[in-house]
TrEMBL record:
PANTHER family, alphabetized: GLYCOSIDE HYDROLASE FAMILY 16 PROTEIN (PTHR10963:SF55), GLYCOSYL HYDROLASE-RELATED (PTHR10963)
UniProt-recorded name of the protein: Family 16 glycosylhydrolase
Family: Belongs to the glycosyl hydrolase 16 family.
UniProt keyword annotations, A-Z: Secreted, Signal
Highest taxon in the source lineage: Bacteria
Residue ranges of the region described as Disordered: 187-246
Principal location listed in the UniProt entry: secreted
Species annotation: Plantactinospora siamensis
CDD domains: GH16_laminarinase_like (cd08023)
Annotated ranges, domain GH16: 222-483
Cell compartment(s), UniProt: Secreted
Cleavable signal peptide: 1-28
Amino acid sequence: MHTKRTLYFVLGALGVAALLGGTLPLLADDSGSTTVGAMADTTATQVVQDGDNGAKTTLATCPQTCDNNPRGWRDAVLEFAVTGLPASAGHLRARLRLHAWTDTAARVAAYGGGPAADGPGVTTSRPNLPLAAQLDVKDAVVSGFNEWDVSAAVRGNGTYTFTLRQETLNTRVYWASRENQRAAIRPELTITYDNSGPPAPSTAPVPSAALPAPSSAAPAPSPTKGDPKPSEVTVTRSPAAPTSAAAPGWRLVWSDEFSGSAVDLKRWNLRGSEGRDIDRGCNTNSPKNTFVSGGLLTLRALREPATCSSQQRQYTQSYLDTIGKASFTYGRFEMRAKSPNGPTNSRGLWPAFWLRPNDGGNGEIDVVELPGGAQYYRAATQAIFWDYTPVKQDQRYPFAKGYPGDGFHTYTTEWEPGRLRWYIDGQQVYERDRGTTPWFDKAFSKPYNIRLNFQVGGWLGDPDASTVFPADFQVDYVRVWQR
Ligand SMILES: [Ca+2]
């Protein structure tokens, strides 16, 4: 997985940034330095206003009593992959650096360990893991970068997780996250060393104060060996895909036909062990919840106990995104898919195909949301959001005949400067433009990435005894065209 992650190494002494594939040139014969950007970070026990795991610009910390937070400590958890240290590196000094926007009289301690990452760029909680030793503490937060000496935890190349815990001041402190649009203020781990060290073992040791790297982060779903999935799967064979659904003038720039036997992790991130506050399920990267077979991607919701983000939950679910892998400014986005939602069996099930801006700021384009339940199952929702107060515009489009769960349908959004159009099975059903939407240009003139997820529970209701699990949201393809 590490080779698929983008790590930012900064040669500190020279101030020259370079993207490297895993080797780090020495600055001098006798010393060196490397700065690694966080490959994952999150606010543990976050609340909605701290941002969501997929698109946030800040991390928050707050003591247990902060704002009467019912979920306990709000900690900032960060994970770094150190791969560039030479075999001869010795006397390692490691500094964890986070940027805050204001001076604040809050004591903040850095610990080794904490919840670990479960997918490329996604840190989520593994609850009940005790924090390792306290590494350093600062009595106050300063505007700009704050540094903690975490040398005691860093032994060499490897994956390191740190937790920042705010011990005083019952007000949240905000820190720039790895997704902040200003790259210069993102979290860093800076390591300096000399060349006095013994040759390192050929495989990275597991540092005592850090968690081991998650076992290959996101196991590629495999239809074979030991996986109970194939015997459980009811694969709905995909009828022949439409030859070309594109309107004239559009050219295909990205697609996944799901014709292989596993989720293509070059195209998608698969979120794991993530519990968002807006729903009732745990996103997992288990092949039980997300798999490719028979030309289809299946996102499967299950009724089963799971723990994520320090919470015990009763459902598991699937969430894929293209953050860091594919993004688009304008385009024609289409999914051909079958919702599992029928009239009597689907309360609390919520498949969706949508887009969010890379900068994590304002804006959201929902190509389609397909909430289940007797009230909702007949319609497909088209929506745009400015923010989540919420300032949004949307409609629920009831099928004239049938309903989204009666078979495969295509859901399309054409996004052009100043205009958005939505189609179902090739027929236009909704349109937004600068006239309908004063915030159109502010929200929809920057790169967006793609999300496919199957949420259980939330604003439109939670499952009840009638909801049937497993429930499968089956996707034949996702295609993106541009002009
Ligand atoms: Ca397909």
